[in-house]
Specification:
Length: 175
Amino acid sequence: MKGRSIAALLSLTLGDAALAAQLQVEVRVSVQRGCLLVSHVRDGGVESLGTLDFGSAARLDDPQGPLSAQLSGQRLARLECNPDTAYQLQVDGGQHGGVGEVRYLGGPRAGTPAIPYTLYRDPARRVPLPVNQVLSGVVPSTGSVELPLYGRIQHLAQVPEAGEYSDLVKVTLSW
């Protein structure tokens, strides 16, 4: 009987022993190419990159030089993507048309002659953005590309009518 009690006691003791198993869990993620446009608040579903404001002038035939503007806003718009992602930038002719490198600011009333202007990619205004021409680039290792925009109104031979002149261009980014 003692033998059976010891066997039963030994069985209970071994039955409480913890069993262990080692398991593996695979963890992964697939990073796909993509970009995010970081800019200003949406206005009716359209991202606003800011405003090019040439300011005020009485005449546009000033011998001291052309009127210049740069994209203004709270911060410069930028494209954030995976490094080495190809992207394309295209700027249309605006509401008043454009050809080559020239676009037009429409006048205060119908029939008012438009004021021609040119858009540029660089602050020195040496690299123009031709109408509807696709410009290509590759995102650097930083993963960020600023989207600056500069403009210039050249000297005009005629004195324009007083009033507000404006245009609205569409910038298309693809990646």
